[in-house]
Amino acid sequence: MKGAFAWPFLRLYLLTLFYFSGNSILHVVIPLKGEALGASNTTIGIIMGAYLFTTMLFRPWAGGLIQRHGPIKVLRMILVVNGVALVMYAFTDLGGYFAARVLQGVCTAFFSMALQLGMIDALPDKNRSQGISMYSLCSYLPGLIGPLLAIGILQASEMNMFAVCMIAIAVLTGAVGYTAKMDRRPDDAKDVSQQPNQGTAMLQSVSQLVKNPHLFKCSVLMLGASVIFGAVTAFVPLYAAQLDSGSAAIYLMLQAAVVVATRFGLMKKIPSDGKWHSYFTMSTMLLLAMASLCVSLAAVAGAALFYVGAVLMGVAQALLYPTLTTYLSFVLPKEDRPTQIGLFIAMADLGISLGGIVLGPVADLTSYSTMYTLCAILGAAMILVAYDRRSLTTEERVS
After folding, report:
1. Do the beta carbons of residue 305 and residue 294 sit within 8 Å?
2. What broad class describes the main subcellular location of this protein (predicted)?
3. Domain annotation for the chain: domains and CATH numbers
4. Cα dihedral sign for 364, 368, 370, 375?
5. Average pLDDT by consecutive 10-residue portion of the chain (399 residues)?
């Protein structure tokens, strides 16, 4: 096999699967255990949001550091720290989870940037979107079984099993990670001695978030969409308990299954030509708005609509991230691409964090249904952001 399906990349996808397995369990365990201990939605949202808020802060810095020292060297170092974080989950209570989430957030900033930037450097242009899609797909595969395993652990009150799972994931991730390899294409080799100071590069990249129209549009779209994804991650386990026949495990597993199926089935349909496709992106944001509305109306319409929302949410989530990331990999200047893509992904992290931290108090003051209605309105607003008249004109001419 060649391209994105060569053996070195398959090993990276396996590493991604192991790395994100812990989160598929924690996304259910933390909210439900927090509620059982009397924590408010605000507190649960802060604990859940701390993970990717920390990732957001470190991700742009991670991009520049990886560019300077190479992805493999950085990857091996942070896998050790990730193992420590997972062991902390095994032996601490709700209070210790916050510290573990912060530590794991630092690890994820470097892990995801190391793999994605390594793939971008190593893969030919025509295979780039496939590689990014496969990475993202494997980050969702654990969601097919993790929620069900988490529910089983909580219902059986077998926290020893929880500890064993966390330790096993840490060991497997480290073992696979230390055998991984990523080789840059010869034309992408860089003389690190000629690269600008890291602090200067960061300041320049932050200013590009506003100055560069491509980076700005993609970042706003990713931020808005990620707020909705974050609200689902943090509060669906609690919301589902209020619905007749509602199951958080079924919802999260169904959403993850749709993400996987969509990424695999539509991988070659994701644009990889460096052009902005308005119809494609606007349709994706429409799906996201409809998904949020279905989840909101499930409070009165029943669990069936709840699961329809899971399907629509999964399709939108599968398409949006690889589409925007691939587009930026073409339009951003090569010398600043790692740091600026890191900044873009940081906006995704910020959005997911805000989905828990900001919308938690909204749920406390109103209801989960009202909160998800606000998410639907936000998704609809993102359709306008995705609109580009010049792109639409070009697409019409092509068709």
Report:
1. yes
2. membrane
3. 3-180+198-398 (1.20.1250.20)
4. positive
5. 74 90 89 85 92 84 76 86 88 84 91 81 73 80 86 75 88 86 55 48 65 90 95 92 89 91 79 84 96 96 94 93 88 78 84 92 94 96 88 50
pTM (two decimals) = 0.78
Residue 333 phi, psi dihedral angles, 5° rounding = -65, 135
pLDDT of residue 393: 52
Contact call for residues 223 and 348 (beta carbons, < 8 A):
yes
Structural element, H or E, at residue 145: none
Q: What is the pLDDT of residue 192?
A: 44
Q: Which residues of 312-345 are buried (b: 16+ CB within 10 A; e: fewer)?
A: bbbbbbbbbbbbbbbbbbbebeeebbbbbbbbbb
Torsion of CA 30, 313, 281, 283, to 10 degrees: -160
Instruction: Give CA separation, 256 vs 73, 86, 195, 262, 318, in Å.
Output: 31, 22, 40, 10, 9
What are the start-end ranges of the H helices in the chain? Answer: 7-19, 21-36, 41-69, 71-91, 94-122, 128-140, 146-156, 159-177, 198-211, 213-239, 248-265, 278-301, 303-331, 337-357, 359-365, 368-386, 389-398
Instruction: Give every CB contact of residue 4 below 8 A, 6+ residues apart in sequence.
Output: 119, 123, 127, 130, 131, 134
